[in-house]
Amino acid sequence: MGEDCLTISVWTPVRAGRKGEHGWHRGKKNEGFPVMMFIYGGGFQTGGENVPYQIPAQWVQRSQNLIVVSFNYRLNVFGFPNAAGLSEQNLGLLDQRLAVEWVRDNIAGFGGDPTRIILWGQSAGAMSVDFYNFAHYDDPIVEGLIMNSGSALVPLRSADTSHSNFSFVASQVGCGNQADAAAELACMRGVPAQTLEQFVGTYQGSGATPGITFAPIADGKVVFDNYTERALEGKLAKVPAIIGTNSEDGVPFAPYNPSGPNQTIAQQALLSLFFCPAVVTTRNRLAAGRTTYRYEYRGNFTNISPRPWMGAYHSAELPLLFGTHPNYRGNSTPFEYAVSAAMQDAWQAFARDPNGGLATQDWPAYTGPGGAVRIFGADGTVAQTRDLSVLEAMCNGVPAIAS
User: Fold this and answer.
1) Is pLDDT of 29 > 80?
2) Mean pLDDT within 106-129
3) Predicted model pTM
4) DSSP code of 248?
């Protein structure tokens, strides 16, 4: 469920902390470095800063012109308790806002530019980025957004309006039969965190019924139930965004088969959970006049995809972005290194200048069906621009997309 306390980690170029005769070296023309803040995924259930493939040291070392920040946020019952006695339920998302504010106030001390912060996330982290986009549209602090395989329209919400999940956990750890919600909450606050984590983790993994889950819930403050409407009203940050998916994002969400997943199920998972929410999110942004860049990752590399049928599975792009792809299962091919460099350079160009940086990468803004989508790692080509309107048309009427 993540670390036991809230922490922030900052990776800086070597020269960011070296003082010369003209002051701190912070980049070209003595400016601060652009800052990429990463929000990890994990379905709002698990995750942390110490996932090996998601350590950005090698990327920062290669770049020498970028700062990458990672931080943890409360998850599962700690981050999204949905307790009747609380006035705030989406605590993990509030942690994320606090982290952005901390970086704004402190990153200059690490050589960073507080006016060039990009908020970037993958999966639940990408959902978080979009939640943030709508919740803090009038004071976003950040200058750009990147959403890898996720947006606010992904149908992952708590529907537990009766607060039954929290009360069930309370009943199992000695806090049942309390006089009221306030007493229940007070009792739960006295239960050791390790006890709660062990019970919830064991119970969720056992397949027992009733099932329990703790996830973001619409509260009208940081999570909403009418994102399309809010987009059309202009209630989203006036900053550019990169939005994309992986071609096999749905594979981990189909029943496991050592010979490969049921392709029909995997394709439906791709469309309903990732690709179509990205399409609708992009359409909403276009209607609101927000600049958006679209991508799809299609790399299939054996040292990070142990089975060839996994392809560009959910999160497979992260080792290439973080530069960790050669670390654990054998060295990478020259083509894999080239795709990694192309993606890193594009993300960094966007961080340097969200409004025009991607023009240096031959990546045009998306203009609608038939518009340009940047494809990474497909058919032996490092990066290319394609029209995905045929695939996008499959999203018309997909019922699982949240509003």
Assistant:
1) no
2) 97
3) 0.94
4) B
Using CA atoms, how far residue 132 sits from 24, 125, 147, 159, in Å, is 32, 10, 11, 20
Per-residue pLDDT tens over the stretch 203-244: 999 989 889 999 999 999 999 999 999 999 999 999 999 999
pLDDT at 3 over 80: no
Contact 309, 287 (CB under 8 A): no
Q: Could you give phi then psi for residue 20, rounded to 5 degrees?
A: -110, -175
Whole-number Å distance between alpha carbons of 287 and 276: 16
The domain at 8-155+216-395 falls in which architecture?
A: 3-Layer(aba) Sandwich (3.40)
Q: Is 123 a catalytic residue?
A: yes
DSSP assigned state of 222: S
Rounded Cα gap, residues 44 and 23, in angstroms: 42
Is 20's pLDDT higher than 80? no
Pick the catalytic residue from 63, 123, 149, 305.
Answer: 123
Q: Of how many residues is the chain composed?
A: 403
Q: How many CB atoms within 10 Å of residue 262? A: 12
Single-letter code of the amino acid located at 102:
W
Widest pairwise Cα distance in the chain: 68
CA-based nearest residue to 53, from 248, 274, 340: 340
Does the pLDDT at position 399 exceed 80?
Answer: no
Phi and psi, residue 396, nearest 5°? -65, 115
Residue 370, pLDDT score = 84
Q: How far is the C-alpha of 111 from the C-alpha of 81, rounded, in Å?
A: 37
For the chain, give every domain's residue range: 8-155+216-395, 161-212
94-105 residue pLDDT tens = 999 999 999 999
Instruction: Give me the mean pLDDT over the 184-213 stretch.
Output: 94
Nearest CA to 282 among 314, 241, 246?
241
Q: Taking phi first (over 0 means left), then psi (-120 to 50 degrees means alpha), and beta for anything else, what does residue 232 get?
A: alpha
Rounded distance between C-alpha atoms, residue 100 and residue 116, angstroms: 12
Whether the bond into 354 is cis, omega within 30 of 0: no
